[in-house]
Amino acid sequence: MAKKNDWKNREGIVYSTKPDFEFTYDTQGQSPTLPPPQQNLKVQLDASGRAGKQVTLVSGFVGQSVDLEQLMKLVKSKCGVGGSAKEGIILIQGDMRVKIVDLLVKEGYKVKKVG
Fold it and tell me: What is Dmax (Cα atoms) for the chain?
């Protein structure tokens, strides 16, 4: 259970006049991670909103953020570049589409190159 005064996670509740009110936190977990053959990943090049710098996006990952982080670390180390992962999307610096598609296919993922 979260701390009693963790007000940042209280969505929409400001004040209650009920003296015995106890806020219940949303404890829905993330969906379980699908095995690689069931993942449908899309690899695409993007430069919008990044001052003209190109990045490769890997989207479509279904699973927990821990597994997404592990996949991101694998891709970053094999490509030798920087990147990040959030909200089910892996962002890799530069145009690494071919290298990433080859790597993910070798790891057993279903991959489609978009764009």
Answer: 61
At 115, the amino acid letter reads: G
CA 55, 70, 72 angle in degrees (round to 5)? 5
pLDDT tens, the chain, 115 aa long = 445 566 666 566 666 777 887 766 655 556 788 888 899 999 999 988 888 899 999 999 998 889 999 999 999 999 999 999 988 899 999 999 999 999 999 999 999 999 8
Q: What is the side-by-side order of every strand in the sheet holding 83-86?
A: 83-86, 89-93, 55-59, 40-46, 110-114
Tell if the pTM clears 0.70, that is, is over it. yes
Gap between the Cα atoms of 112 and 115, Å rounded: 10
What whole-number distance in Å separates Cα of residue 5 and Cα of residue 27? 17
